[in-house]
């Protein structure tokens, strides 16, 4: 039976892992805002030049309107640079502390934490399917543990009580690939009576349709960690009541 000290350590780690996921989600959203707002601003700026050639240079009112349009665009761009871009710089470059570590031990540890921190309380079972034994990966063990924990925790939160989450961990083609498979339940994500690790707005956003190639905001951390390791992260289709898979794939060595 875990001691009070063990419980306190788990609670502290749960809070830290949740905070890390929230930090990366914030910066991911800011990155999307910066990209998506710049596109129409660039269009407005271009059309302003078109209007300049069409308008009468002697029309003072039209010239004031044009100046106002350009000023507004410049103010918005400066706001993006000073507030949005500078804020998300914290996770834009992700330094890694690389060292060899055993993959199976990592997966088992994260699964244990996932059960103790959230899955057991939500009556969701976690199982590991893996042929790995002593195989190692040269990478940042803690960052990859955070990535896998975020994947597992999201799968747990997106699963109805008594559902099952499966973790498959294999090595293929010089890469470690881990897949977290679950059955998506929008009701479970939005159920405020169940314990959660992620903010309600993040859970709600995860139920919205996604543009091609984009992930749910809350999964920004595993995507960023995979990219930093020269790998990839993918979120499968997330239709209510359907099976969905989260995939993390990183090379075994830099």
From TrEMBL:
Kinase recorded as keyword: yes
Top-rank lineage group of the source organism: Bacteria
CDD domains assigned to the protein according to its UniProt record, in alphabetical order: HisKA
Pfam families listed in its UniProt record: HisKA
Keyword Kinase: yes
Enzyme kind, highest EC tier: transferase
Reactions catalysed, as given in the entry: ATP + protein L-histidine = ADP + protein N-phospho-L-histidine
GO MF assignments: phosphorelay sensor kinase activity
Domain Histidine kinase: 32-254
The protein's Enzyme Commission number: 2.7.13.3
Keywords: Kinase, Phosphoprotein, Transferase
Protein name listed in UniProt: histidine kinase
Species the sequence originates in: Trinickia violacea
């Amino acid at each position: 039976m875990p001691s009070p000290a063990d419980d306190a350590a788990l609670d502290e780690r749960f809070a830290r892992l949740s905070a890390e996921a929230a930090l990366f989600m914030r910066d991911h959203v800011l990155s999307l805002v910066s990209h998506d707002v710049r596109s129409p601003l660039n269009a407005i700026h271009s059309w302003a030049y078109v209007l300049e050639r069409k308008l009468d240079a002697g029309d003072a009112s039209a010239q004031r309107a044009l100046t106002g349009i350009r000023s507004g665009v410049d103010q918005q761009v400066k706001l993006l640079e000073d507030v949005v871009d500078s804020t998300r710089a914290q996770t834009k470059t992700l330094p890694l502390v690389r060292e060899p570590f055993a993959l199976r031990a990592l997966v088992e540890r994260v699964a244990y934490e996932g059960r103790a921190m959230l899955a057991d309380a939500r009556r969701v079972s976690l199982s590991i399917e893996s042929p790995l034994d002593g195989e190692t990966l040269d990478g940042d063990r803690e960052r990859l543990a955070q990535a896998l924990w975020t994947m597992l925790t999201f799968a747990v939160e997106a699963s109805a009580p008594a559902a099952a989450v499966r973790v498959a961990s294999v090595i293929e083609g010089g890469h470690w690939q881990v897949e977290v498979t679950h059955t998506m339940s929008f009701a479970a994500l939005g159920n405020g009576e169940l314990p959660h690790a992620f903010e309600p707005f993040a859970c709600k956003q995860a139920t919205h349709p996604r543009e091609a190639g984009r992930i749910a905001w809350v999964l920004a951390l595993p995507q960023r960690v995979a990219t930093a390791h020269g790998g990839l992260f993918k979120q499968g289709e997330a239709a209510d009541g359907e099976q969905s898979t989260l995939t993390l794939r990183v090379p075994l060595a830099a």
